[in-house]
Write a structure and sequence with these properties.
The protein has 99 residues and is mainly beta. It has a single domain (2-96), classed as Immunoglobulins (Immunoglobulin-like), CATH 2.60.40. It is built from no helices and 10 strands. It has strands spanning 2-6, 12-20, 28-32, 40-41, 43-45, 50-58, 62-69, 73-75, 82-85, 91-96. The chain is globular. The model has no long low-confidence stretch (mean pLDDT 95). Residues 77-99 are annotated as: Disordered.
């Protein structure tokens, strides 16, 4: 799941990536073009039974991303704005920060 929070006075959007823990064994990361495709660890949140990562991204742009589960399994977010082929025979999720 993806949650976006737009600010009236800032040119950025707070984005929360969330992956249910039933889809994860030991670890989950967000891997995205905004991190130069370097994995960013998601934190396990016991209260919501999920893994989360929160960041701020510039408004009016789009970003490709995927989740890496247990350092070996690629997972797409069903709530991505769109999907785009990634050159490896699969799709990346596409996140837009247009309001």
């Amino acid at each position: 799941m993806i949650n976006k929070r737009f600010f009236k006075t800032k040119d950025e959007v707070e984005v929360t990536f969330e992956l249910p823990s039933d889809q994860v064994g030991q670890s989950a990361c967000v891997v995205a073009d905004f991190s130069n495709w370097q994995p960013i660890a998601m934190k396990k949140v016991a209260k919501s039974q999920s893994y989360k990562f929160k960041t701020r991204l510039p408004k009016n742009q789009q970003f490709e991303f995927r989740y890496l589960v247990d350092e070996s399994q690629w997972v797409n977010d069903p709530s991505a704005d769109r999907y785009t082929p990634n050159g490896f025979g699969e799709d990346n999720g596409l996140l837009t920060t247009y309001q």
